[in-house]
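re the bet — no i am not wrong, look at it urself. input seq straight from the record:
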Amino acid sequence: MRPRPGFHIATVAGIPIYLHPTWLVIFGLITWTLVNQYSAQHPEWSAQQHWGAGVVTSILFFGSVILHEIFHGLVSRHYKIKVQAITLYIFGGVTRSEREPSKAIQEFNIAAAGPFANILLYVIFHVLTKFFPYNSTVGALASWLAFINLSLAVFNLVPGFPLDGGRVFRAIAWGITGDFSRATRIAGAIGKLVAYAIILAGAWLALGGGIKIGNLLNLERDIVTGLWIAFIGWFILNAAQESVAQIEVRETLSGLRAQDVMSHEVPTFPGGNTLEDYAEEVLRTGRRFHLVLNDDRLTGMMNVQALNAVPRDEWAGTSVQGVMVPRENILLAKPEEPLLALLERLLASDVNQMPVVTENGEGGMHIVGMVTRDSILRVIQTRSELGAEALRAKE
C-alpha cells in the first residue's frame, strides 16, 4: 500500500485524515501567536489560561480546516467520486480524490462546499460571541474563530487556482467553453496573476510600506508578515503551474493504452532462490524488478526496494519468496486500459511497475507484458517534444 504523507489521526465519514509534518510548524506558530495575543488583551488571565486558550483555539482552528475539507469530500462522494484521503499541510488541507468531476456543475458545487463550511462556522461562533463576553475564555475563542473562519472563506474564494475560488472560476469557464482543458488553462493563467500579485504585495509589505484597502484591510510595514504573504503567493504559483502541467500530461496520454507502451519482455526469477542470488541477477542484468515464479506459477513480484529492506548479512539465508510482494497484492493491468488511468493507479499505489495480463477461457491469467513509470514518462517526453500539432495531424 502507498505510504501516506504524514500521520493518520482519524477517519471521519469514511475519509482517512492525515497530518503532514509541516502542519506542526504552523500549529506551533499559531499557538504562540495566540498566547501572545491573549496575554496582551487579557492580562487578568493566568499564564495557564493564556496557554490553554491558545492551544484550544489552535485545535479548533484546525478542526475548522478539517471540516472545510470534509465538506469537499462529502459533496465529491455525492457525485460518486471516491475521496482517498485528506491531508493537513502547513497551508491548510488537501482533499485527494480518485478522479476529476465529470461536469462543470459538479466542480462548482465541490469547490464551493469548503468556503460554505467556513461561513457556517463563522455564523456559529459569531452567535456565541453574543452570549459570552470577550473577556471570558469562551468569548475570546469564539471571537477569534469567527474572524478566522470568515477570513478563510474569503481567502479561499480568491480566484487563484487551485484555491477554491480558482476552481469555482474554472467551473464557470468550463460551463461557458464546454472544454475542461481550456478552462483549466484559463483558470491557471488567472491563478498565476493572482499569485504574482500576492508575492508583490508581500514584498512591498516587507520592504516598502503598508497596504490599505478601504476599511477592509490595513496592514503596516512588517517584514515577517510580508515574507509570509509572499511565501503563500509562491505556493499558489507553484500549485497553479502544476495543475496546468497535469492537464498537459492528460492530453499527451489521451488515446494511449497499456498495450501501446508495455514491454513484452517480462523478467522472472525463481522464488526458492536466495536474496544473494537475486542481488547477483540484478547486478548482472541491471533490471530492478522481476516476477517471481514457482513451478511456472506466478507467486509474487520482487524488486530492489524489497531487497534493500533486508540487512545485507541476511541475504544468503533469506529466500526471495520470503520478502516478495505476494501475488494477491500485485496490481494488474489489462492491455486495453487507458494509459492515463494506469499512471494514476501507479502513482496512487506508489509502485513503479505493473504486469499486463489477459484472461483465458478458464478464468486464468496470462502475462503479456509489463508497464513501468519510466516507460510512461518516456512517452510523455517524446510526445511533448514531437508537439501537439503533429499529434493532431496524426489523429
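see?? The chain has three domains: 1-157, 177-252, 258-394. told u. also DSSP finds 14 helices and twelve strands in the chain. so pay up
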